[in-house]
Amino acid sequence: MEQNDSSKGLLTGGDQLQFHEFDNDDDDSPLIDAADKDTSGSQVQTHTFNNYPSDGDEEGDKAELLTGKKKQAAFWTFEYYQTFFEVDSYEVVRRLMASFIPQPSKDFLNSQIRPNPDLYGPFWVCATLVFTIAISGDLANFFTTKGGHGWHANFYHVTVAATIIFLYAWLTPGAVWGVLSWQGNPAGYTFLEMVCVYGYSLTIYIPISLLLVIPSPAFRYTLMAIGLILSVSVMLLSMWPAVKDFDIKISVITLAVIFILHTLLTVGFLLYFFDEQFDATHIDPHITTTHAALKPTKSS
Question: What is the predicted pLDDT for the residue at 154?
Fold first, then answer.
Protein backbone atom coordinates (compact mmCIF):
# COMPACT_ATOMS: atom_id res chain seq x y z
CA MET A 1 0.00 0.00 0.00
CA GLU A 2 2.76 2.47 0.88
CA GLN A 3 4.48 1.76 -2.45
CA ASN A 4 1.27 2.41 -4.36
CA ASP A 5 0.69 5.67 -2.49
CA SER A 6 4.20 6.94 -3.31
CA SER A 7 3.75 6.04 -6.99
CA LYS A 8 0.45 7.89 -7.02
CA GLY A 9 2.14 10.93 -5.46
CA LEU A 10 4.83 10.95 -8.16
CA LEU A 11 2.23 10.77 -10.87
CA THR A 12 0.32 13.64 -9.34
CA GLY A 13 3.47 15.80 -9.19
CA GLY A 14 4.30 14.88 -12.76
CA ASP A 15 0.92 16.02 -13.96
CA GLN A 16 1.75 19.50 -12.64
CA LEU A 17 4.77 19.84 -14.95
CA GLN A 18 3.44 21.45 -18.08
CA PHE A 19 5.42 22.72 -21.10
CA HIS A 20 4.27 25.83 -22.88
CA GLU A 21 5.28 27.36 -26.18
CA PHE A 22 5.57 31.16 -26.38
CA ASP A 23 5.29 33.39 -29.40
CA ASN A 24 8.35 35.47 -30.31
CA ASP A 25 6.40 37.92 -32.43
CA ASP A 26 6.31 40.48 -29.64
CA ASP A 27 9.78 41.34 -28.28
CA ASP A 28 8.32 42.77 -25.07
CA SER A 29 6.43 39.58 -24.13
CA PRO A 30 7.28 38.36 -20.63
CA LEU A 31 9.32 35.26 -20.08
CA ILE A 32 7.59 32.80 -17.80
CA ASP A 33 9.93 30.57 -15.84
CA ALA A 34 7.20 28.59 -14.07
CA ALA A 35 4.08 26.74 -14.99
CA ASP A 36 0.89 28.66 -15.74
CA LYS A 37 -1.62 28.19 -12.95
CA ASP A 38 -1.75 24.96 -11.02
CA THR A 39 -4.89 23.12 -10.07
CA SER A 40 -5.08 25.02 -6.81
CA GLY A 41 -5.25 28.39 -8.67
CA SER A 42 -1.89 29.80 -7.41
CA GLN A 43 -0.47 32.85 -9.24
CA VAL A 44 2.54 32.38 -11.50
CA GLN A 45 5.73 34.42 -10.91
CA THR A 46 7.07 36.03 -14.07
CA HIS A 47 10.19 37.98 -14.99
CA THR A 48 10.13 40.66 -17.66
CA PHE A 49 13.25 41.97 -19.39
CA ASN A 50 12.80 45.32 -21.04
CA ASN A 51 16.35 46.76 -21.39
CA TYR A 52 17.68 44.67 -24.19
CA PRO A 53 21.04 45.79 -25.73
CA SER A 54 20.52 47.16 -29.18
CA ASP A 55 22.18 45.58 -32.16
CA GLY A 56 23.92 48.85 -32.95
CA ASP A 57 25.69 48.96 -29.57
CA GLU A 58 26.84 45.37 -29.94
CA GLU A 59 28.17 46.01 -33.42
CA GLY A 60 30.00 49.15 -32.23
CA ASP A 61 31.65 47.27 -29.36
CA LYS A 62 32.69 44.46 -31.68
CA ALA A 63 34.17 46.93 -34.15
CA GLU A 64 36.23 48.62 -31.39
CA LEU A 65 37.54 45.26 -30.21
CA LEU A 66 38.45 44.08 -33.70
CA THR A 67 40.07 47.29 -34.93
CA GLY A 68 41.56 48.41 -31.62
CA LYS A 69 40.27 51.97 -32.15
CA LYS A 70 38.07 53.90 -29.77
CA LYS A 71 35.82 56.83 -30.42
CA GLN A 72 37.53 60.20 -29.99
CA ALA A 73 36.13 62.09 -27.02
CA ALA A 74 35.19 65.76 -27.28
CA PHE A 75 37.98 68.20 -26.37
CA TRP A 76 35.97 69.73 -23.51
CA THR A 77 35.67 66.39 -21.69
CA PHE A 78 38.07 64.92 -19.15
CA GLU A 79 38.45 61.74 -21.22
CA TYR A 80 39.98 63.74 -24.08
CA TYR A 81 42.91 64.97 -21.95
CA GLN A 82 43.21 61.70 -20.04
CA THR A 83 44.55 59.99 -23.16
CA PHE A 84 47.58 62.31 -23.13
CA PHE A 85 48.71 60.84 -19.79
CA GLU A 86 48.17 57.15 -20.58
CA VAL A 87 51.80 56.07 -20.45
CA ASP A 88 53.59 53.65 -18.12
CA SER A 89 56.72 54.36 -16.08
CA TYR A 90 58.94 52.13 -18.20
CA GLU A 91 58.09 54.04 -21.36
CA VAL A 92 58.68 57.41 -19.66
CA VAL A 93 62.10 56.31 -18.38
CA ARG A 94 63.02 54.99 -21.82
CA ARG A 95 62.11 58.33 -23.40
CA LEU A 96 63.99 60.28 -20.74
CA MET A 97 67.17 58.33 -21.44
CA ALA A 98 66.82 58.62 -25.22
CA SER A 99 66.17 62.39 -25.09
CA PHE A 100 69.88 63.23 -24.65
CA ILE A 101 71.50 60.37 -26.59
CA PRO A 102 71.71 61.32 -30.28
CA GLN A 103 71.27 58.40 -32.67
CA PRO A 104 71.87 59.35 -36.31
CA SER A 105 70.36 56.09 -37.53
CA LYS A 106 66.94 56.80 -35.99
CA ASP A 107 65.41 60.01 -34.76
CA PHE A 108 63.90 60.43 -31.31
CA LEU A 109 60.38 61.31 -32.43
CA ASN A 110 59.75 58.38 -34.76
CA SER A 111 61.56 55.78 -32.68
CA GLN A 112 60.45 56.79 -29.17
CA ILE A 113 57.45 59.14 -29.26
CA ARG A 114 55.29 57.64 -31.98
CA PRO A 115 52.65 56.29 -31.97
CA ASN A 116 51.84 57.30 -28.39
CA PRO A 117 52.93 60.88 -27.55
CA ASP A 118 52.27 61.93 -23.97
CA LEU A 119 52.22 65.05 -21.82
CA TYR A 120 53.02 63.28 -18.55
CA GLY A 121 56.78 63.16 -19.12
CA PRO A 122 57.18 66.68 -20.57
CA PHE A 123 55.13 68.24 -17.77
CA TRP A 124 57.17 66.68 -14.98
CA VAL A 125 60.44 67.39 -16.77
CA CYS A 126 59.55 71.08 -16.94
CA ALA A 127 58.23 71.20 -13.38
CA THR A 128 61.32 69.44 -11.99
CA LEU A 129 63.68 71.69 -13.94
CA VAL A 130 61.95 74.80 -12.57
CA PHE A 131 62.80 73.87 -8.99
CA THR A 132 66.22 72.34 -9.59
CA ILE A 133 67.56 75.30 -11.54
CA ALA A 134 66.05 77.90 -9.18
CA ILE A 135 67.27 76.19 -6.01
CA SER A 136 70.67 75.36 -7.50
CA GLY A 137 71.06 78.97 -8.57
CA ASP A 138 70.46 80.16 -5.02
CA LEU A 139 72.90 77.61 -3.61
CA ALA A 140 75.54 78.53 -6.18
CA ASN A 141 75.31 82.18 -5.24
CA PHE A 142 75.41 81.27 -1.55
CA PHE A 143 78.66 79.35 -2.00
CA THR A 144 80.11 82.11 -4.17
CA THR A 145 79.42 84.80 -1.57
CA LYS A 146 80.36 82.35 1.22
CA GLY A 147 77.07 83.06 2.98
CA GLY A 148 77.87 86.71 3.59
CA HIS A 149 75.59 88.87 5.66
CA GLY A 150 74.25 90.56 2.57
CA TRP A 151 73.07 87.32 0.92
CA HIS A 152 69.43 86.28 0.92
CA ALA A 153 67.40 83.61 -0.91
CA ASN A 154 65.59 84.81 -4.00
CA PHE A 155 62.30 82.96 -4.34
CA TYR A 156 61.46 85.11 -7.34
CA HIS A 157 63.75 82.80 -9.32
CA VAL A 158 61.10 80.07 -9.15
CA THR A 159 58.58 82.32 -10.88
CA VAL A 160 61.07 83.38 -13.53
CA ALA A 161 62.18 79.81 -14.19
CA ALA A 162 58.58 78.56 -14.46
CA THR A 163 57.64 81.33 -16.89
CA ILE A 164 60.65 80.81 -19.14
CA ILE A 165 60.59 77.02 -19.19
CA PHE A 166 56.87 76.47 -19.72
CA LEU A 167 56.59 79.22 -22.32
CA TYR A 168 59.53 77.77 -24.21
CA ALA A 169 58.14 74.22 -24.00
CA TRP A 170 54.77 75.30 -25.42
CA LEU A 171 55.25 78.35 -27.66
CA THR A 172 58.38 77.22 -29.49
CA PRO A 173 57.02 73.84 -30.62
CA GLY A 174 53.81 75.61 -31.61
CA ALA A 175 55.77 78.00 -33.83
CA VAL A 176 57.78 75.16 -35.38
CA TRP A 177 54.63 73.14 -35.99
CA GLY A 178 53.11 76.21 -37.67
CA VAL A 179 56.05 76.42 -40.07
CA LEU A 180 55.78 72.71 -40.84
CA SER A 181 52.05 73.07 -41.53
CA TRP A 182 52.74 76.07 -43.76
CA GLN A 183 55.10 73.93 -45.83
CA GLY A 184 52.67 71.03 -46.07
CA ASN A 185 54.02 69.00 -43.12
CA PRO A 186 55.15 65.99 -45.20
CA ALA A 187 56.21 64.04 -42.10
CA GLY A 188 52.77 64.48 -40.51
CA TYR A 189 54.09 65.80 -37.19
CA THR A 190 51.36 66.88 -34.78
CA PHE A 191 51.46 69.69 -32.24
CA LEU A 192 51.36 67.16 -29.39
CA GLU A 193 54.38 65.33 -30.82
CA MET A 194 56.30 68.61 -31.07
CA VAL A 195 55.50 69.49 -27.45
CA CYS A 196 56.59 66.01 -26.43
CA VAL A 197 59.96 66.38 -28.18
CA TYR A 198 60.64 69.83 -26.71
CA GLY A 199 59.57 68.78 -23.22
CA TYR A 200 61.79 65.69 -23.14
CA SER A 201 64.69 67.65 -24.66
CA LEU A 202 65.05 69.57 -21.38
CA THR A 203 65.79 66.39 -19.40
CA ILE A 204 69.57 66.76 -19.62
CA TYR A 205 69.44 70.13 -17.86
CA ILE A 206 68.07 68.61 -14.64
CA PRO A 207 71.26 66.76 -13.55
CA ILE A 208 73.42 69.53 -15.04
CA SER A 209 71.64 72.19 -12.96
CA LEU A 210 72.48 70.24 -9.80
CA LEU A 211 76.16 70.10 -10.75
CA LEU A 212 76.29 73.81 -11.48
CA VAL A 213 76.34 74.42 -7.73
CA ILE A 214 80.11 73.86 -7.93
CA PRO A 215 81.63 77.37 -7.96
CA SER A 216 83.78 77.06 -11.06
CA PRO A 217 82.90 79.17 -14.13
CA ALA A 218 84.91 76.96 -16.49
CA PHE A 219 83.23 73.83 -15.15
CA ARG A 220 79.77 75.42 -15.50
CA TYR A 221 80.29 76.58 -19.08
CA THR A 222 81.66 73.16 -20.05
CA LEU A 223 78.66 71.34 -18.58
CA MET A 224 76.16 73.64 -20.24
CA ALA A 225 77.94 73.31 -23.59
CA ILE A 226 77.78 69.52 -23.34
CA GLY A 227 74.10 69.65 -22.40
CA LEU A 228 73.35 71.99 -25.29
CA ILE A 229 75.12 69.77 -27.84
CA LEU A 230 73.37 66.60 -26.68
CA SER A 231 69.92 68.14 -26.34
CA VAL A 232 69.85 70.15 -29.56
CA SER A 233 71.32 67.24 -31.55
CA VAL A 234 68.36 65.06 -30.60
CA MET A 235 65.98 67.85 -31.57
CA LEU A 236 67.61 68.54 -34.95
CA LEU A 237 67.69 64.84 -35.82
CA SER A 238 63.98 64.64 -34.98
CA MET A 239 63.18 67.67 -37.15
CA TRP A 240 65.22 66.57 -40.16
CA PRO A 241 62.61 64.10 -41.58
CA ALA A 242 60.06 66.93 -41.51
CA VAL A 243 62.20 69.56 -43.31
CA LYS A 244 64.37 67.52 -45.67
CA ASP A 245 61.79 67.83 -48.46
CA PHE A 246 61.49 71.60 -48.09
CA ASP A 247 63.35 74.15 -50.14
CA ILE A 248 66.97 74.12 -49.00
CA LYS A 249 66.83 77.70 -47.73
CA ILE A 250 63.71 77.08 -45.65
CA SER A 251 65.18 73.87 -44.26
CA VAL A 252 68.41 75.57 -43.20
CA ILE A 253 66.60 78.56 -41.70
CA THR A 254 64.20 76.34 -39.75
CA LEU A 255 66.97 74.21 -38.26
CA ALA A 256 69.08 77.29 -37.56
CA VAL A 257 66.23 78.98 -35.67
CA ILE A 258 65.67 75.84 -33.60
CA PHE A 259 69.38 75.75 -32.73
CA ILE A 260 69.57 79.46 -31.89
CA LEU A 261 66.49 79.41 -29.63
CA HIS A 262 67.78 76.38 -27.73
CA THR A 263 71.18 78.04 -27.38
CA LEU A 264 69.62 81.23 -26.05
CA LEU A 265 67.70 79.21 -23.47
CA THR A 266 70.88 77.47 -22.32
CA VAL A 267 72.89 80.69 -22.10
CA GLY A 268 70.01 82.38 -20.30
CA PHE A 269 69.98 79.64 -17.67
CA LEU A 270 73.69 80.05 -17.07
CA LEU A 271 73.77 83.84 -16.93
CA TYR A 272 70.60 84.52 -14.98
CA PHE A 273 70.81 81.78 -12.36
CA PHE A 274 74.53 81.03 -11.99
CA ASP A 275 76.54 84.12 -12.94
CA GLU A 276 77.01 86.26 -9.84
CA GLN A 277 78.20 89.21 -11.91
CA PHE A 278 75.06 89.15 -14.02
CA ASP A 279 72.63 88.50 -11.16
CA ALA A 280 73.09 90.76 -8.12
CA THR A 281 69.61 90.17 -6.68
CA HIS A 282 71.01 87.98 -3.88
CA ILE A 283 72.85 90.88 -2.31
CA ASP A 284 70.86 93.26 -0.18
CA PRO A 285 72.16 96.74 -1.08
CA HIS A 286 71.05 98.22 2.25
CA ILE A 287 72.99 95.66 4.28
CA THR A 288 76.02 95.97 2.02
CA THR A 289 75.96 99.75 2.31
CA THR A 290 75.68 99.53 6.09
CA HIS A 291 78.66 97.19 6.37
CA ALA A 292 80.69 99.39 4.06
CA ALA A 293 79.88 102.44 6.17
CA LEU A 294 80.83 100.67 9.38
CA LYS A 295 84.10 99.40 7.99
CA PRO A 296 86.96 101.24 9.69
CA THR A 297 89.22 103.34 7.55
CA LYS A 298 92.91 103.96 7.98
CA SER A 299 93.76 107.34 9.37
CA SER A 300 96.31 109.35 7.52
Answer: 77
